[in-house]
Amino acid sequence: MPLNLFGIAGRMTGAVNPCIPADLYASDGVEDTPSGEVIPKYIECRIWIEVQAMTSQDLQQVENLNQQGDMRAVYIRGGIKALNRPLQYGGDFIKFYNSYWKVTQSLEEWGDAEWCKVAVTRQISPPPGCS
User: Fold this and answer.
1) Residue 103: is its pLDDT beyond 90?
2) Each residue of 10-37: b (16+ CB within 10 Å) or e?
3) 93 - beta bridge partners?
4) How many angstroms from the chain centroid is the CA of residue 116?
5) Phi, psi of 6, rounded to the nearest 5 degrees
6) What is the C-alpha separation between 4 and 72, in angstroms, rounded?
7) Would you say residue 23 has pLDDT above 60?
């Protein structure tokens, strides 16, 4: 049986920084309305995440994104991709702390979508198509 590092690490850090429930809005393409408007579609599911402040190494990694705002590092069981226009995927959002957070960059990924660490940026308002 393979070693589940996420589970081991989660048990160790859970006493200090427990996982919290969140809603994942995974990008699922777009929908054309009768008026010609293009609205993003999302698949919504409940997930558990661990939220941390960005480390100095994380900040160096996202330095060239030219973004300002409230950013966090989020650990998630499974694989979530950041926005990548050339490969046509991403645009996912996570709702936690009563705010919507855009997944802006993949920071680390382990195994075959076993778990990942992503950078998220707080959004001012809910994205179109999310409720």
Assistant:
1) yes
2) beeeeeeeebeebbbbbbeeeeeeeeee
3) 25, 102
4) 9
5) -60, -45
6) 24
7) yes
pLDDT at 7: 57
- Whether 21 has a pLDDT exceeding 90, the answer reads yes
Taking every pair of Cα atoms in the chain, the longest distance, rounded to a whole number of angstroms, is 54
Residue in the structure block whose two tokens are 């919504």? 44
pTM check: above 0.90: no
E strand intervals along the chain: 20-32, 38-52, 71-77, 93-96, 99-110, 115-122
Q: Of 43, 54, 44, 53, give the one whose Cα is nearest residue 22.
A: 44
Phi first, then psi: give them for residue 52, nearest 5 degrees: -140, 160
Residue 14 clears pLDDT 80, i.e. is over it: no
Of residues 87 and 127, more confidence is placed in 127
Distance separating alpha carbons of residues 82 and 104, to the nearest angstrom: 5
CB-based contact 87:125 (threshold 8 Å): no
